[in-house]
Structure to design on (364 residues):
């Protein structure tokens, strides 16, 4: 079987995406499904490919926050049926120690499967209109497209009454922020948290912390994003605030118990550590590209720092929880989304990079 459809192809690290005809060859293999994409979020991880120094093979179809409808299954054991609405998340091997221990984000093969072009045996071939090979599935999806073949393991069935075209970001960006709060930190009523960086991940953390009953501070440099954080019931603080750690300590009754850095800025990471109360926990979700010298005393008195990948989430558990919170009006992620036709992917990228939109969602 060959399925032909439109997709946004990145052919050069420096040039725009091109929307063109591509083809998937062969039926979905055992354990795989074919999904008609209804919408796909644009994540900064997609855009970071431009700076990956050749580590991500090109040409490629990116996109890893897809959602849509199952239109084909490979074998009887996928657990999904034609017509099911699904949110797609990251790929994992399913059999390493961490996968078996309910930590698929720390899969031994995470990098090769999701980031650097790992191709599973017998995976369907992906080509352009001229027959040229495209890179293997990005994050197990390549969902900047009208269709995607994915492992059933990284597809999560959702309520068909929900607007599936908006749900894709629950598979990565919103999953990461909310998961850090609900899984990594286990935040509850009366806790305090400070988020550094009020983008998609940071604002998802704000929403989840508010839903959990925490007092939350949001730090950013963009007034519009601080205004959004305030609408979501966080206390806004500009990143240039004088004596920022001291200001946070005053707002959180002696120091924030939890801090989440989404920026990767060594200066803000040090501010976050100094704002923690004794036994406080700082989680990092951004990749740090420079040395990270810590100020003296930063990790004294039980304070700790850890890296958090994909919100420590099991997607099949967290995504339904987030949709339930959204239905209850307690996780209003739709307020962060702006939709674009797939044909306008380059405009969406420009708006994302300029900070004019928190979460672009592309509609094929």
């Amino acid at each position: 079987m060959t399925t032909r459809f439109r997709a946004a192809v990145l052919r050069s690290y420096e040039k725009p995406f091109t929307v063109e005809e591509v083809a998937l060859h062969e039926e979905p293999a055992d354990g795989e499904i074919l999904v008609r994409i209804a919408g796909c979020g644009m994540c900064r991880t997609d855009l970071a490919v431009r700076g990956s120094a050749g580590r991500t093979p090109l040409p490629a179809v990116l996109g890893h926050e897809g959602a849509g409808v199952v239109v084909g299954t490979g074998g009887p054991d996928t657990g999904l049926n034609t017509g099911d609405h699904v949110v797609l998340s990251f790929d994992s091997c399913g059999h390493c120690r961490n996968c078996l221990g309910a930590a698929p984000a720390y899969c031994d093969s995470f990098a090769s499967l999701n980031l650097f072009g790992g191709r599973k045996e017998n995976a369907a071939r992906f080509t352009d209109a001229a027959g040229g090979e495209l890179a293997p599935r990005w994050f197990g999806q390549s969902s900047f497209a009208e269709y995607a073949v994915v492992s059933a393991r990284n597809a999560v069935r959702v309520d068909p009454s929900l607007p599936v075209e908006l749900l894709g970001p629950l598979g990565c960006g919103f999953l990461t922020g909310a998961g850090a709060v609900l899984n990594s930190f286990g935040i509850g009523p009366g806790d305090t948290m400070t988020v550094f960086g009020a983008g998609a991940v940071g604002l998802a953390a704000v929403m989840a912390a508010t839903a959990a009953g925490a007092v939350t501070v949001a730090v950013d440099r963009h007034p519009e994003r601080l205004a959004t954080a305030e609408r979501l019931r966080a206390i806004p603080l500009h990143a240039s605030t004088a004596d920022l750690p001291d200001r946070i300590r005053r707002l959180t009754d002696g120091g924030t118990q939890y801090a989440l850095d989404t920026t990767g800025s060594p200066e803000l990471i040090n501010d976050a550590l100094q704002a923690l109360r004794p036994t406080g926990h700082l989680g990092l979700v951004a990749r740090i590209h420079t040395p990270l010298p810590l100020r003296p005393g930063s990790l004294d008195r039980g304070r700790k720092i850890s890296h958090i990948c994909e919100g420590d989430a099991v997607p099949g558990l967290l995504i339904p929880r987030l949709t339930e919170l959204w239905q209850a009006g307690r996780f209003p992620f739709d307020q962060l989304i702006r939709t674009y036709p797939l044909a306008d992917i380059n405009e969406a990228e420009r708006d994302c990079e300029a900070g004019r939109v928190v979460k672009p969602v592309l509609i094929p």
The chain is about 25% helix and 25% strand.
